[in-house]
Amino acid sequence: MTISEQLSRETRELTFDTLPDVVVHESKRRLLDTLACGIAGFDSPPSRALQALFKETGGPAEATLYGSGFRTSAMNAALANGVMVRFSEAMDLSLESANGVTFHGHPGEVIPSILAVGERQHSSGKDIITAIVLGYQLLNRLSYAMGGGRAIEHNGWKNEIRAGLIVPLVVGKLMGLTEQQLVNAVGISGCFSSGLGLLDHGSEEVTMSRDLRFPHHAYQAILAALMAQKGFEGPSRVYEGHNGFNEVISRGKIDLALLSQSDGEFNILYTWTKAYPVNIRLLGLTEILRGMVRDHHLTPERVARIRIRTTQRVLEGMGNPGTHRYPQTKQTADQSAYYVAALVIADGTVRLGLDQFTAERMRDPKLRAVIDKIELIAVPEWKTDDAPTEVEITTVDGATHSGRVDHPKGHVRNPMTDHELRDKFRGMASRLMDEAKIKKVFAAIDGLEELKDISKLTSTLVVA
User: Fold this and answer.
1) What is the β-pairing status of strands 400-405 and 389-395?
2) Exposed/middle/buried for residue 12 (C-beta within 10 Å: 0-12, 13-18, 19+)
3) What is the mean pLDDT for each group of 10 consecutive residues in the chain (464 residues)?
4) 205, 317, 373, 422 - which has most CB atoms within 10 Å?
């Protein structure tokens, strides 16, 4: 039996009745968190561009675009809604275990595809919950088998490539595809999955195309599932075949036995919820500086120097002076250690509403003056993803203040409560939705397993 055949069988066998209550509850938390990100990105430039395109090109009214309520094809909706989620840079992150040592990408990005196809199929809330759990399970396991979210990036690819191999299974389950059709869908989509590391490299200015990293693969994956449903065939050995995914993309480093082995636990429980809309490696920095500004009444004028001790990975990806010291795009700014630190010193925090990432704010002389006081220092022995962040601030009167954080708020070892997660949703959505509309979203998600048709949820996501 091939890897695709084994995963297709596992996909078909997973049912809602096999899910523990804690897993069902966590799937609702993941859904709420991802929708917060999507609503926040509704009026972003890349979202507006895609909405205009799809209104111009049309398509069957199968699924809803977040915010506008415009209905288009499931493929288009997955693409546009996925871009809204990614634009926010506030989506969740998978960890390998409760210890939270190794990062494995952003599994919540599978949710726009699930909702889009779920609307098309008039799926129930139980179907959606099952698909979310499956999506997290398989996306994360593929990352584990590849050696972590960063492993494939050493070969020049982005780890969202995995969407092209896993999303066909998840949406195919909602479509009721047979095992053979699922295999065909994975083969079709997997053979055309690629994503250059240029999209989000620390030595390059990051553009809107970053926000397509997962959604574009998801678009193709839905297309592949639709093709397979009509009888189109794909190779069953897309992983292990000659010049297949393992040989060409992963350079033979996938642990195929691990990939094909059904998990003994639900890895959706090992998810990190971001408290701020910035790169995951900048959350500790944000949290430390927030506390220091509050406790020591720091202002940009009072700060003489800021020294940030972090990992070499942060310097490579978020600390390149040529591209990230004075970011020119939102997609670079939320990855910039310099810019994020300056925001906290100037404003006291990084707000969830994304208003601090406008072109005008990036040109703010006040921020640039703070940026010029920042020094990033790599600590050689800090090599793992769970490395801490340390900050030392010297004020103009010679005083020194320091802070350190090991597990920022939202980490699996310092999780957000349900109440805090709702506050995050409010923080990201309140500029577009009033409290009455927000409560309707909460109510629909709370009672998700009782919904007969997921459109009862997606209809609450219209902000106008």
Assistant:
1) antiparallel
2) middle
3) 96 97 98 98 96 94 96 98 97 85 88 98 98 96 81 74 95 98 97 83 82 95 98 96 87 87 89 96 95 96 96 88 94 96 97 96 96 95 84 97 94 95 97 96 98 97 89
4) 317
User: CA 363, 364, 369, 372 torsion: positive or negative?
Assistant: negative
**Amino acid making up residue 371:** I
Helix/strand/coil for 301: coil
Which of these, 171, 181, 54, 57, lies nearest to 121 by C-alpha position? 171
What is the Cα–Cα distance from 7 to 10, expressed in whole angstroms? Answer: 5
Please tell me the distance from the alpha carbon of residue 63 to that of residue 453, in angstroms, as a whole number: 12
CA distance 64 to 462: 9
CB atoms within 10 A of CB 70: 17
Domains of the chain: 3-275+416-461 (1.10.4100.10), 280-405 (3.30.1330.120)
How far is Cα 404 from Cα 339, in angstroms, rounded to an integer?
19
Q: Which two tokens stand for residue 397?
A: 């009167």
* Placement of tokens 């546009």 in the chain: 80
